[in-house]
Specification:
The complex is a heterodimer of chains A (304) and B (276).
Chain A lengths: L3 H4 L11 H27 L2 E2 L8 E2 L3 H8 L3 H33 L4 H9 L6 H12 L5 H8 L13 H26 L4 H9 L4 H12 L1 H18 L1 H8 L10 H11 L3 H27 L7
Antiparallel strand pairs in A: 1-2
Helix pairs in contact in A: 2-14, 3-14, 4-8, 4-11, 6-8, 8-11, 9-10, 11-14, 13-14
Chain B lengths: L1 H6 L3 H25 L4 H6 L10 H9 L2 H32 L5 H10 L5 H14 L6 H5 L6 H12 L4 H8 L4 H29 L3 H6 L8 H4 L12 H32 L5
Classes of the chains: A mainly alpha (304), B mainly alpha (276).
Chain lengths: 304, 276
């Protein structure tokens, strides 16, 4: 796929003056008004004290950024963000990567069936997924509580339990995005020659060694893409269960950078602080974007 | 021979592992379908299958919210957003593949980078824009900011790049206009990719939650995802059987689309991982 442009050979695209710009214009117009202008305006708002209603915005310089670090909940917000990222990486990067290895090279039958079913939750609204898990995990009558009851265990009230609340919200979110990441990882492994794996298995090399020493290096550009996807998509998707069930609680126990921007903006109407938080999040994603272009787009790995 | 294969070389262990994964994926969906036709008492105390199939939950939803209108809202938003995204993406992708112009690489890079901009960064200004236009609590206000999509440009560009170039070069020599070339040569050849990109847009818009939550206020303007919450945050806790029925109404169309267009969707999603 990567060499498409060069494999086209003698073809030289035409330089046709204004025409290409007319083709790009409709998309560019939407992006300009609803993506780039807001981006700049958010940076602008982060230097002002405002509440969306007051006629005058008061310039406060970097004060909103300093205020973030004086926020008594700053530790929880950043700490939780980190925990979410780690959990999302386990559920939506490492797990699908391992499972796509199993499906590609270990299992011999029913591949298409497994693939189709595993992808299914990806087409379902996370609002639906969240509510279904709320039912399954409800401590009074949910199927999980009944199952635990068989073993004499009591189901915890997860939504008000510090720590556990983040794990459950990450699981709900992962239920939706696992399938998509799985399919992408699977396609990356399609680039690993089957003969290499078969030769390794003939030599009785253990599966975990085949995975770590052959498959991971040979599919690493897709791997990094899935890693970034897990964070970028996952962090935005966790907003849904947080907003539906906990609103960041108990006592900021399930909030994170993304949810906090929403809370500051539409809960407290502090556009300055909200924008400053948003810009911090953007910088974090900017680092990921840099990694994406450095390692994935250029395809510096062995994958072809 | 084939059946034996499952038991050979410890294959059974891996199948059990995959089966557990499938169970986690599918169980919530099955619970929704069976729960939606149960009585509340049956849901709490009964087994997996309903003792008696009742459609009471659906009737109660129809009595509580304008469900037909809500479904229609969701459909109109998803259909319009999809149509616009497909058109703007196809036009832009054509420019990036078949023209050479100053700053092409950098403009493409900037557009694709927007995939990495979290919604929180654009949310406040976009809300202010929509409210200035008087579009708060209007389904048009939900659509407006999403009429173009970077991932669409990416996916359709991938498909167009695979089209042999001589096909269009001959058309150019014959003096056929760019729009005719796009319409009569490129679109027919890349139709599978364009259709599946469209289906992906439709499903994503159908399922959208964050932006509609900010914009829509009244029940009759809600989308399905928002209507779900009507039955959940009432103070007595969650109305589970109605929630299940609402879940079924919300997910039935995406599931149907997925089952019908499965092969298209899979290959397009998979190609999004292979960067070009």
């Amino acid at each position: 796929m990567k060499r498409n442009s060069s494999s086209a050979g003698r073809f030289i695209p035409r330089n046709s003056g204004i025409k290409p710009w007319l083709f790009i214009l409709p998309a560019a117009l939407v992006f300009a008004v609803f993506m780039f202008y807001p981006l700049i305006y958010t940076v602008y708002l982060s230097f002002f004290d405002w509440n969306m209603i007051k006629p005058v915005k008061e310039f406060v310089g970097l004060q909103n950024y300093f205020d973030i670090f004086k926020d008594p909940n700053i530790g929880k917000i950043f700490g939780n963000t980190l925990i979410y990222i780690i959990l999302l990486l386990i559920f939506d990067f490492i797990a699908p990567y391992i499972f796509s290895f199993i499906l590609s090279f270990v299992i011999k039958m029913g591949k298409n069936f497994y693939r189709s079913v595993i992808f299914l939750p990806s087409v379902i609204s996370l609002v639906v997924g969240t509510m279904l898990f709320v039912w399954i995990l409800n401590p009074i009558s949910g199927p999980a509580a009944k199952l635990m009851g068989l073993f004499g265990l009591t189901a915890p009230v997860w939504s008000t339990t510090q720590g556990l609340v983040i794990v459950i919200i990450s699981i709900m979110t992962s239920w939706k995005i696992f399938g998509y990441n799985f399919i992408v990882a699977l396609s990356g492994m399609g680039g690993v020659p089957l003969e290499v794996i078969e030769a390794a298995r003939m030599d009785d090399i253990p599966l975990h060694r085949i995975f770590l020493n052959i498959v991971v290096p040979m599919s690493s550009s897709t791997g990094i893409y899935v890693l970034i996807l897990s964070i970028v998509q996952g962090m935005q998707q966790v907003f849904t269960p947080i907003n539906m069930i906990t609103q960041g609680g108990p006592d900021y126990g399930s909030t994170n950078l993304i949810y906090n921007v929403y809370n500051e903006a539409f809960g407290f109407y502090k556009t300055g602080t909200a924008s400053a938080y948003a810009i911090l999040m953007l910088l974090l994603f900017g680092v990921l974007l840099f990694l994406e272009f450095k390692y994935v787009e250029k395809g510096v790995y062995y994958e072809n | 021979m084939k059946i034996k294969g499952i038991f050979k070389d410890g294959q059974i262990f891996w199948h059990i592992l995959m089966f557990i994964l499938i169970l986690i994926s599918v169980c919530p969906i099955l619970f929704a379908f069976t729960g939606s036709v149960k009585t509340l008492e049956d849901l709490y105390n009964g087994g997996f299958f309903p003792r008696e199939i009742i459609f009471d939950n659906f009737k109660r939803i129809a009595a509580a919210v304008p469900i037909v209108r809500i479904t229609l809202n969701t459909f109109i938003i998803a259909a319009c957003v999809t149509a616009f995204k497909v058109i703007t993406s196809t036009l832009a992708a054509y420019a990036f593949v078949y023209f050479d112009f100053r700053g092409k690489q950098i403009i493409y890079f900037i557009l694709i980078s927007t995939i990495f901009i979290p919604f929180t960064v654009t949310m406040i200004p976009n809300y202010l824009t929509i409210s200035k236009l008087g579009l708060v609590d209007k389904i048009f206000g939900v659509m407006l900011p999403q009429l173009a999509d970077a991932s669409g440009i990416f996916l359709i560009r991938q498909a167009m790049r695979a089209v042999p170039k001589p096909l269009t070069e001959i058309a150019h020599l014959d003096g056929i206009s760019e729009l005719r070339i796009l319409k009569d040569i490129i679109i027919p050849v890349t139709r599978p990719a364009i259709i599946s990109t469209g289906i992906i847009f439709f499903i994503n818009s159908w399922n959208e939650y964050v932006w509609p939550t900010l914009i829509l206020r009244s029940n009759e303007n809600f989308t399905l995802s928002l209507a779900m919450q009507v039955f959940t945050d009432s103070e007595g806790g969650v109305e589970y059987t109605m929630t299940m029925a609402m879940a079924v109404i919300t997910m039935i169309l995406p599931i149907a689309l997925y089952l019908i267009f499965q092969r298209y969707i899979m290959s397009t999603f998979a190609s999004s991982g292979i960067k070009g």
